[in-house]
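Bench log, entry 3. Co-assembly request; chain sequences pasted below exactly as received.
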Amino acid sequence: MFKFGTMEPERKRLKISDCDVDSWEVVPVLSDELSQDVELVDAFAAPILDKKQTSKLVQQLNTLHPLTSLAHLKRVRACKNKDSPHALEILICSVNDADEPCHFDCSNAGLGEPFAVKIPRTPPLTRRQFEQASEHWPTCFHEVKQVTAALRGELFNAKQKAQMRDYMMLAIDSAKAGKDLGMSAVGAVVVDPSSDKVIAVGHDCSKDHPLQHAVMVCIDLVAKSQGGGCYTYEKYPGCKFNSPDLENKTPQPYICTGYDLYVTKEPCVLCAMALVHSRIGRVFFGIRSEDGAMGTKFKIHTRKDLNHRFEVFKGVLARLPLISTELKVKRRRS
Amino acid sequence: MIAMGTEGVCGESFYPSDEEIKKWMDKAFDMAKDALENGEVPVGCLLIYNNEIIGKGRNEVNETKNASRHAEMVALDELRDWCELRGLEVKRVCEKTVLYVTVEPCIMCAAALRLFNLPVVVYGCRNDRFGGCGSVLDISSANLPQTGTMFKCVAGHRAEEAVEMLKIFYKQENPNGNPNKNDLLNYVTFLLL
Ligand SMILES: [Zn+2]
Ligand SMILES: [Zn+2]
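Structure output for the full assembly:
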């Protein structure tokens, strides 16, 4: 077992501004369904000629054209056009429903000339989607405070960001140790957030083994901390692990369940899927990578068809030289 | 039987013959059956170079507590050891090596096979939960210039048998369970493949 030393000497050599918690933002890597624009579908609506008939009309239409898959929509809206003689408009049906002939007799029911509208197909998941949706038709929105806060970059306070910085600094130290051995300068750290204990620190070893990326090394070091593991790391002093305090820990740690991973750059497909299999809790990375599987080429952590999903955040210490340079070099080359 | 010599076989045209596929898949199925009889997950996995087994693997997730120790990953480590012992370059050997496996490799293993530059993978049944050769994602042919090379797949050899063995295994493990298809694949591919 190893003790992880303090990072003070390293910190002094760096420009304060690059480490300052205000100089970088922790940005969530959201699923496409959260980050995309609202999807609109065609529908018909009509003005209500006699306001007093509104509730009757709503009842009639709810029977004839229930908003089954459109339950996020309000049936009636205030007329958008201020000059209109009618105060309210009612949603009759979406165009899909109307493929079967619409039996609603608008003129007899007391409705004006039907017109086409665009309506949001699915409930809005973010405030941005809600605002987009509401421009077309009044929409209900069950706001998930965490998602809104995350999108505003407000999920983590300065103290939490300072802690992220410290963990990422450990990953950077390890990356440097690996670089000195001729490896790619990528480092990773696994932390137990319930005890703030560092479980594993590792760097890329792929010069010696094509699959020994920093994340794969850390997954194996976590296994070692639990009495398993399959590789030895004597050649790599920058790769080490701490066993959790097993006596005080209930339930016993199981693979990477509940652990956070900090890694200097976005994990590739191999590492991302290994983290799914390992049931990682959350992932924080510095910058994107060209074949990255957590936002760039795929979003493996958000896929509903896989049996484990987790939150991913990018941008941690993104302006620090070691984190940002590797990508710059690659961009210049391409 | 056409021997897969190193001479005259260039990367592009490298492909196992039908006889080779039958021979080695039969062997992989024998391994899977053996595993089933011993209460282990019934998956067989072989790496063949020059008509010789240079790596084989079984799932080692439970004993290593490392969820990435799928049979393919274990077999790739054997291949590395085999090369080291003979002083051969891993990359050169991999260019002419075929993986035979009774179940489609998962997304992680597909990425690993790319990083080892394996040109051809022959597999039995699909892996609907985690498959990396088209079932969930197609890592085998995705545009990933930093993640090794693409590989070709030969799918479907004795697929029904491979599924059947997984079903039998699941029933043995959970005699009181009421398995549905999702539970089965979830259980087998997550815990043990
Ligand atoms: Zn990786
Ligand atoms: Zn796998």
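The first helix of chain A runs from residue 8 to 13. Residues 6-12, 327-334 of chain A have pLDDT under 50 and may be disordered.
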